[in-house]
Specification:
Bound molecules: adenosine-5'-diphosphate, magnesium ion
Radius of gyration: 25 Å
Helix content: 25-40%
CATH architecture of the largest domain: 3-Layer(aba) Sandwich
Distance between the termini: 17 Å
Strand order of the largest sheet: 6-7-8-3-9-10
Shape: elongated
CATH class of the largest domain: Alpha Beta
Number of domains: 2
Largest sheet: 6 strands, mixed
Strand content: 25-35%
CATH topology of the largest domain: Rossmann fold
Number of helices: 11
């Protein structure tokens, strides 16, 4: 449904996108993931025809966005990073205005407004000025706007930024409910945001694609790092040498001495080996109280380090 082919974008001397390619299949919901400044908004602005690329091509349902912008735009609903809301309009007035922009026939206008208000769950605030809405409701109005004209494709740029946890869950559920009838490209700089809802993740860093894979496969790759941090009460050299002897432990080193009589140890293990029970048994057999054992937290930075250190992971 969306084909991004060899996109390159320069802002003056600055190379914002460097030869990126990916596809979003019909009905798929794809997470576009990367830290701030990675090039997500730039890519989305090009896909939606609001920005031209320096090189490369975007096809939406086979239509070239550059060659036939109107035809392509009619297939796309776009929620930009900062939705262009007119705060002095009521929600209903604003949606009516969007209907005009998208050439919804006059006879269908009210029906469209009712429909998108219902889908984006803004029926209750239709008569209110946008100025007086909470950030969460404004974001839903932005979504309602994107849904005008029932586009096949939805491009959503960081739709949950600035929302509180409750609003994030609401917007996430909303997106999930839309995914059945639309093809969706959803950007975020937070892994957990997209992991739960997406079929596929496209990870971008410094304008280059570093990985394309399912959330499950990416998490599996990351988990293989198998790093543990321990805090054990006992004589540090005995503890360390004992842990080094556990089968599957590749590396064990003292991280720090936090308090007298305890030692913090970093442990790295072979891939696919879980040494946690063996560590517990060793400590317990020797009467070394195990005060803490934690796995390294999986975050986007780890994924970047992992995937940028290797060749592209593709499916
Ligand atoms: P993201 O959405 O992933 O945070 P952007 O696409 O907004 O990233 O930005 C990608 C890079 O391009 C950044 O380094 C940013 O500073 C730069 N950039 C974005 N827009 C412009 C612009 N209009 N002029 C110059 N540089 C820009
Ligand atoms: Mg952005």
């Amino acid at each position: 449904m969306i084909e991004v082919k060899n996109l390159t974008k320069r802002y003056g001397d600055h190379l914002a996108l460097d030869d990126i390619s990916f596809t979003v299949e019909d009905g798929e919901i794809v997470g576009f993931l990367g830290p701030n400044g990675a090039g997500k908004s730039t890519t989305m602005n090009i896909i939606t025809g609001y920005l031209s690329s320096t090189e490369g091509q975007v096809l939406v349902d086979g239509v070239d966005v550059l060659e036939e912008p109107l035809k392509a735009k009619a297939k796309i609903g776009y929620l930009p990073e900062i939705p262009p809301l007119y705060v002095d309009m009521t929600v209903e007035e604003y949606l009516a205005f969007d209907c005009d922009l998208k050439h919804v026939p006059a006879a269908k206008k009210q029906e469209t407004i009712d429909q998108v208000s219902k889908l984006a769950r803004v029926q209750d605030v239709k008569g209110r000025l946008i100025r007086n809405l909470s950030k969460g409701y404004r974001q839903r109005v932005g979504l309602a706007q994107a849904l005008v004209g029932n586009p096949e494709v939805l491009i959503l740029d960081e739709p949950t930024v600035g929302l509180d946890p409750k609003q994030i869950i609401e917007v996430r559920d909303l997106i999930k409910s839309l995914s059945r009838k639309h093809t969706i490209l959803l950007s975020s700089h937070i892994l957990q945001e997209v992991q739960a809802v997406c079929d596929k993740l496209v990870i971008i860093n410094h304008g280059r694609i570093v990985a394309i894979d399912t959330p499950d496969a990416l998490s599996r790759n990351i988990l293989q790092i198998n790093k543990l941090e321990l805090r054990v009460k006992g004589p540090k050299n005995d503890v360390l040498s004992g842990i080094k002897q556990i089968e599957g432990v590749k590396l064990a080193e003292i991280l720090r001495i936090r308090e007298e009589g305890t030692v913090d140890i970093n442990v790295e293990t072979e891939e696919d080996v879980d040494v946690r029970e063996a560590i517990f048994a060793f400590c317990s057999d020797n009467n070394y109280p195990l005060l803490m054992m934690k796995t390294e937290e999986i975050n986007l930075e780890d994924i970047f380090l992992q995937v940028t250190g290797e060749r592209e992971v593709r499916r």
